[in-house]
């Protein structure tokens, strides 16, 4: 079995996560452990799915059926990140604002989705990781 197919999305997740943590820590001027999770630059989800699509394109070609499946999945994930999850974050902000007076209200996470720039950054990270894995393991 070619381990690059298992290694690439994991490395894309790791690289994007480290980048996001570093960027958030620099912005906050302290370690930003509380900002780990959904939202932020770059998008981990976009990095993961685009790394797999890019690796398949590199190894198998753009005409391979697996590339079609991978790119379809990537589009679904990126559309979800930019629309549905972003709307969930807006709803959480509105609910948090309404529930300020509630004593037992546990604040909902507002940072959920991604902007187009965050998604594009995730795609670039994913593609770069796929090329790096192919170069190193080739």
UniProtKB/TrEMBL annotation:
Question: Which residues span the membrane?
Answer: 6-23, 35-58, 64-81, 119-137
Which keywords describe this protein according to UniProt? Membrane, Transmembrane, Transmembrane helix
User: Is-annotated flag, keyword Iron-sulfur?
Assistant: no
Q: Which domain of life is it from?
A: Bacteria
InterPro entries xref list = DUF212
Has UniProt tagged this entry with the keyword Transferase? Answer: no
Extract the Pfam families matched here.
DUF212 (PF02681)
According to UniProt, the name of this protein is: Divergent PAP2 family protein
The organism named in the record is Undibacterium parvum
């Amino acid at each position: 079995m070619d381990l690059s197919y298992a290694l690439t999305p994991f490395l894309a997740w790791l690289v994007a996560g480290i980048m996001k943590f570093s960027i958030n820590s620099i912005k906050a001027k302290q370690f930003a452990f509380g900002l780990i999770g959904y939202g932020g630059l770059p998008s981990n989800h976009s990095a993961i799915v685009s790394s797999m699509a890019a690796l398949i394109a590199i190894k198998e070609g753009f005409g391979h059926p697996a590339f079609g499946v991978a790119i379809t999945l990537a589009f679904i994930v990126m559309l979800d990140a930019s629309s549905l999850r972003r709307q969930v974050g807006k709803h959480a902000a509105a609910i948090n604002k309404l529930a300020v007076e509630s004593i037992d209200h546990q604040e909902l996470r507002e940072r959920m989705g991604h902007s187009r720039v965050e998604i594009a950054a995730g795609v670039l990270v994913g593609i770069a990781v796929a090329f790096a894995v192919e170069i190193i393991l080739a």
